[in-house]
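Hi there,

I know you've been waiting on this one. I reran it after we fixed the sequence typo, so this is the corrected version. Both the input and the resulting structure follow.
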Amino acid sequence: MKKFHHYIIFLAGTSLLLASCSVGKKYTRQDLDLPENFRNNEIVLTSDTLALSWRKFVKDPNLTALIEKALIKNTDVSVALLSMQQLELAYKQSKKGLLPTLDLNLGANRTWLSTNSLNGSLSDQFIGTPYMDDYNATLRLSWEADIWGKAKMQKEEALANFFGQKENLSALKTRIIVQVIQSYYNLIALDEQLKIAQKNVQLSDSTLSMIRLQYNSSLVSSLAVEQAEAQKKTAELLIPLADQNIAIEENAISILCGDFPDKILRSKGLDATIVDGTLVTGVPAELLSRRPDVKAAEYAVVAANSRIGLAKAAMYPSISLTPSIGTNSFQFNRWFDLPGSIVKTIAGNITQPIFQKGALKTNYEISIIEREKLAVQFKQSVMLAVSEVSDALAKIKHSDQRLQLIEAKSNSLAKATSDAALLYKSGMANYLEVITAQNNALQNDLEQISIKREKLNAVVDLYRALGGVNDTEQY
C-alpha cells in the first residue's frame, strides 16, 4: 500500500513539473508591408489620431435622434450584444480550466442472483434473501494536469473570440450609423428632387399657356402645343416617382431604427444637413488600431493560432488523478454506518492516443490551414481598408470639382431658360429652344442634387473607412 502511494506521489509530482510545458506558439503579426500614406491624400501624419465620434461628426439634431434610436433598437445590434454575452460566458468558463471537477453519485440497486451461481447460493446462505442490495454514495474528484498548456490556450482562444465579437459589434454599429446617415441624405435628396419637379411643372405650365395663346392666334402650329404638353408631362412623371421613393426610403430608415414603417422627421434640404468634413486621415498603419473590422480579423487569427496548439496537445499524453471517498453497504440501515461503510479509492492515469485513424493529425493539419486562411483574410481586410480610405478621398476631391462645374453650368442654364422665354415672347426664338432650355435646366438641377448627395456620402464613407465607432464612445 505504501509503495502504491509512492507511485501516486511520483505521478502528481511529474504532472506539476511538466505543467510548465506548452506546445502552442505565441501569436506574432505577419508583415503586412503597408504603404506610407493613402492615395489621393495630401495630408500625411505620423502621430496617432483618434477616430472622430459620430456625435461630433453629425450636426443635424433630427439625424442624431435617428442614430441614437438605431443604436439602441436595431435588431442586428441586439443580436450582436447577445452574442457578446455568450462569448463572455465562454471566456469566464475557460478561466476555470485548471480547476478539478467534483461529482457526487448516490445509487441503490437490487439484484436477483441465479440460484445456480456461487454468488446466488452464498447470498441465500449468508443474507437469507434471494436478492442482493447495494447502496452506494461516492464523492469523486477528478483533476487533469495541464502539462501542455491547454487551459491557457483555451483561455486565449475564448478571449480572442470575445474581443473579436466586440470589434464586430463596433463595426456593426459603424455600419448602422453610416446606413442611417446615407439613407437620411437620400431622403432629403428625394425631397429636393420632388421640389424641382414641382417647380418645373409650374414653369412648363406657364410655357404651355403661353404657347396655347399663340396657337389660338395662329402664330404656332399644334405641334408646338404637343411638345409643350410632353415637356410638362416629363416633369409631372417625376412627382409620383419621387413620392414612391420617399416612402420606400422612410420605411428603410424606420426598420434600421427598429420601428415599423412611419414618417421620418428631417431637415428641409441638403445644404441644411451639415457634416464635419475635416477628418484627419493619418497613415495606413493606423487602420490596424482604428478599424474594428480589421481588428476583428486579426483576433480571428489569434483564436486560430490557439486552436493549433490545442490540436497539437490532443496528440500528446494526458495525466489525471481521480481520488474518491464514499460509503457502501448491502443493508440500507447500515449505509452510513461509519467508519465501517467508508470506501476510499485513489487512482492516477496516463492516457496516450496511439491509433485514432489519423484523426488527430488531420485535425492538427486542418487547424494550420485554417489559420493560414484567416491570416490571408486579415491581410485582405487591411488592403481593403486602405483602398476604401483612398476611394473616399478620391470621391470627395473629384465631387468638389464636379460641384464647382455644375454650379457654373446651373447659372448658365438658368440664364438660358430666362433668355429663351424672353426671346420667345419677342418672336426671336422658337418654342423648341424654350422647351430644350427648360429640359436642360431640369436635368442639370437633378444632377446637381445627385452630386451633392455623392459628396456627403463620400464624407460618410471616409468616416467609416477611418474606423468609425471607437471603444470609448457611449450609447
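Quick highlight: The radius of gyration is 38 Å.

Best,
R. S.
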